[in-house]
Task: inverse folding
């Protein structure tokens, strides 16, 4: 018995079972909190991404976009492989639910690691209304400047029907280009590519999504 | 106690400076180089390492008489992996921003040599008190090293300490003094080399003084 496989490995087996049970407990207890954290991070960004002048005009009120998180609906597209957030503003009047636009997720390779972004689009997905970087591991002090408002705000107002490009110097107005971060051209280019791919993919699916609504 | 190795107090004190895991044993250099860009990250990583170190040492010490020599490394790794997973999930649930910033370096604590070294050198041979004291001492030594590295790098690379701007603010003219290499891998190697050299130099100075005093 002492030299059999079980005699040799009983401690390893016992520990594996005990640790496995402990980790299952941890997953049951903290798993929902972790999932909620991920959702919160996405939903916290949504009002900022569709916050534009048009929304204020429609409601006739200053842009206090409270209730956006609660009113937003998740819409699967691309055979359920992706989820778009159909963003609504819920005013005091229950019937006054205003469709502000869409928020979609984009993901792709950056300089150091995967970059994940959220892109805000208007109702017809013709214009980019905002961009925020959800996840990045780019070089601190250089590539991670893609998380700064100065960089992200450049995407607001760009034409979603055309690819977004970049330039090392300040781009001409109306050129549908952004200025790349000095010393971090690859990170800037990666964000443009991710945006272009995600927006084109979503725009191709938009007619089908609109048809479902009607 | 003498035949059971160093006392708990000796174990505790040795880990902080004389046998500092990073600067004297040169162990766990991967996180030392990778996550010391800011003090906040360094402290989070140190706390996670300390937690795993204490738990792994305690479990190993408890089962030390049952360990088969040829299976001991497997048992150490299994124990360490379980507690690293708990630390990783805890950070993801309660400190999500840090969990994201530290990325794969928290799961990589599994292969941190400091922990497996302490299981092998101390916990598999000594009782609970000495193993716990050893874990706390080595954990504090590791914290000291990471915070020292991060202090130099954050001050020079970002002009701040613990995210508090000290020298300049983002977007102001003072930013031109940023030594941005300190935020990057070469800055980590440079800082590590200089601090390692400083620790060795101070140690040699002490030894010379002690030798001179004996004469």
Result:
């Amino acid at each position: 018995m002492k030299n059999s496989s079980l005699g040799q490995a009983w401690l390893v087996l016992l520990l594996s079972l005990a640790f496995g049970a402990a980790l299952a407990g941890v997953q049951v207890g903290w798993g929902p909190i972790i999932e909620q954290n991920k959702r919160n991070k996405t939903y916290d960004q949504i009002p900022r991404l569709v916050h534009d002048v048009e929304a204020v005009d429609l409601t006739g009120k200053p842009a206090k976009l409270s209730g956006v998180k609660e009113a937003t609906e998740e819409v699967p597209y691309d055979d359920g492989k992706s989820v778009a957030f159909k963003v609504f503003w819920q005013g005091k009047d229950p019937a006054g639910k205003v469709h502000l636009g869409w928020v979609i997720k984009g993901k792709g390779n950056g300089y150091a690691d995967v970059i994940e972004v959220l892109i805000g689009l208007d109702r017809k997905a013709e214009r980019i209304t905002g961009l925020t970087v959800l996840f990045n591991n780019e070089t601190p002090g250089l590539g991670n400047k893609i998380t700064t408002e100065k960089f992200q705000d450049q995407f607001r107002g760009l034409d979603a029907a055309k690819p977004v490009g970049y330039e090392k110097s300040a781009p001409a107005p109306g050129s549908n280009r952004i200025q790349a971060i000095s010393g971090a051209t690859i990170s800037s280019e990666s964000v443009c590519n991710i945006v272009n791919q995600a927006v084109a993919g979503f725009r191709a699916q938009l007619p089908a999504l609109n048809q479902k609504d009607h | 106690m003498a035949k059971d190795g160093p006392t708990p107090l000796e174990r505790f004190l040795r880990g902080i400076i004389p046998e500092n895991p990073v600067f004297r044993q040169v162990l766990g250099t991967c996180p030392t180089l990778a996550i010391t860009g800011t003090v906040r990250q360094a402290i989070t990583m140190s706390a996670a390492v300390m937690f795993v170190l204490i738990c792994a040492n305690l479990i190993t010490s408890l089962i030390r008489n049952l360990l088969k020599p040829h299976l001991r490394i497997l048992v150490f790794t299994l124990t360490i992996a379980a507690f690293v997973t708990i630390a990783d999930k805890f950070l993801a649930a309660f400190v999500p921003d840090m969990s994201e910033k530290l990325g794969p370096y928290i799961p990589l604590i599994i292969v941190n040599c400091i922990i497996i070294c302490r299981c092998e050198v101390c916990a598999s041979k000594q009782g609970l008190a000495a193993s716990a004291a050893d874990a706390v001492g080595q954990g504090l030594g590791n914290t000291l090293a990471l915070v020292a590295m991060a202090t130099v790098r954050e001050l020079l690379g970002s002009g701040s300490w613990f995210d508090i701007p000290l020298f300049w603010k983002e977007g102001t003219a003072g930013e031109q003094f940023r030594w941005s290499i300190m935020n990057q891998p070469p800055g980590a190697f440079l800082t590590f080399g200089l601090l390692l050299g400083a620790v060795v130099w101070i140690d040699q100075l002490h030894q010379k003084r002690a030798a001179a005093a004996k004469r």
